[in-house]
Design a protein that fits this description.
CATH class of the largest domain: Mainly Alpha
Structural class: alpha/beta
Distance between the termini: 42 Å
Strand order of the largest sheet: 1-2-3
Strand content: 5-15%
Order of helices and strands: HHHHHHHHEEHEHEEHE
CATH superfamily of the largest domain: Cation efflux protein transmembrane domain
Shape: elongated
Number of helices: 11
Helix content: 55-70%
CATH topology of the largest domain: Alpha-lytic protease prodomain-like
């Protein structure tokens, strides 16, 4: 309820979360709330840590301070990523959002390394932890704050498809674990004189490092070019195939230039006897409608396929029969025959499973096997095969 109220207030009721302006407002809201909550928790835990002389509590306090700094970086990241395209960056500045999330991840890991060092020092030089009920209860309340903050960021991240906010949500959930461990260590001091505070501090620091590592992994993947989701791939392919005249699709390429800044291109096959103006109108309509529906920029290349002659049909059927038994090959496209008389070229592309290629199964081996099989039945054909890899 609080989340919905804050969201409505920040966006002034605008629910078009694909709009860059609205995305920016949601990002600022998440950042400001994160700064306020984490600063409050830092002050509370710092005070508790000093009162009870617990390195584990102090480690958790400074983890919250780094989270507040992370929220500031998130705000700056959203501000810079929303800058319009320019001469040097014709596709916008959306990837800055990933860079800001990466900086946050490294800051989280830095805090983790620092407190491993401090906790080991406490293990070597133990000090008694003084348990008090009021600080303990306040720690439990801070756990509730972090649970809410995690849900808050997850909801906003889902609304605007932001990996940065989803990562922040995961980080907050990790803080719930670390603070819970700290609270348990304080409670344990009532029943034992064993100096477990330093060991608990190490556990908290390791949890912080683990959260930071996951954040690095999640934010660096889109920067180096991660594979698009299966859902998006199927949505584009099935969407294009739903239009009149289009009989097949291939060569789908998707580029991510930041959240809400996706470009895709695909080849659409259609019978060559269809009027070029008619199919052009269909392609234009598909580009326009699918770009809007899927919130990306789609470009469709027209690929006329000739299936009019008996020779082409028979040759295509022969090739399909040959490749059917090869589990490495996923599909074939752009099939055509060029030349006359006894010497003709069969030209076509095949899509192979890139994960199955190895030293024993190479692209050249696949081409040679297909060519030899065709030559055996139809010696007049020379195969020109292009390999497309799909992972």
């Amino acid at each position: 309820m609080i989340t919905d109220f804050l969201l409505k207030f920040a966006t002034k009721g605008n629910t078009d979360f694909s709009d860059n302006v609205v995305r920016g407002k949601v990002g600022y809201l998440a950042g400001i709330v994160g700064i306020i909550v984490n600063l409050i928790l830092f002050i509370i835990k710092l005070t508790i840590g000093i009162i009870v002389s617990s390195i584990a509590v102090l480690a958790d306090a400074f983890n919250n301070l780094s989270d507040a700094a992370s929220s500031i970086i998130t705000i700056v990241g959203f501000k810079l990523s929303s800058l319009p395209p320019d001469k040097e960056h014709p596709y916008g500045h959306g990837r800055i959002e990933y860079l800001s999330a990466l900086i946050v991840a490294f800051m989280v890991m830095l805090v983790g390394f620092q407190f491993i060092k401090t906790s080991i020092n406490r293990i070597m030089n133990p000090q008694a932890v003084v348990f008090e009920w009021i600080p303990f209860i306040i720690l439990l309340v801070s756990i509730l704050f972090k649970v809410w903050l995690s849900i808050f960021n997850k909801k906003l991240g889902d609304k605007i498809s932001s990996s940065a906010l989803k990562a922040t949500s995961t980080d907050a959930l990790g803080d719930v674990f670390t603070t819970s461990v700290v609270a348990i260590s304080l409670l344990a001091s009532l029943f034992t004189d064993i100096p477990i505070d330093g060991y608990i501090g190490v556990l908290v620091a390791i949890a912080i490092l683990y959260a930071g590592f996951n954040l690095v992994k999640e934010t660096i993947n889109p920067l180096i070019g991660e594979a698009p989701s299966e859902e998006l791939i199927n949505s584009i392919k099935n969407g294009v195939l739903s239009y009149e005249y289009i009989t097949g699709v291939h060569d789908l390429i998707i580029h991510n230039y930041g959240p809400g800044r996706t470009m895709a291109s695909i080849h659409a096959e259609f019978p060559s006897n269809v009027n070029v103006m008619a199919i052009h109108e269909v392609i234009d309509k598909a580009e326009r409608e699918l770009s809007k529906k899927l919130e990306l920029h789609l470009v469709i290349h027209m690929d006329p396929i000739c299936m009019d002659t008996k020779e082409i049909v028979e040759a295509r059927n022969e090739v399909e029969k040959i490749i059917k038994g090869n589990t490495t090959i996923k599909s074939m496209h752009d099939f055509r025959i060029v030349g006359k008389g006894d010497k003709k070229n069969l030209i076509f592309d095949i899509v192979v499973d890139g994960n199955k290629l190895s030293k024993d199964i190479t692209e050249e081996d696949i081409k040679l096997d297909i060519s030899n099989a065709i030559k055996k039945n139809s010696p007049q054909y020379n195969c020109i095969i292009t390999i497309d890899k799909e992972y």
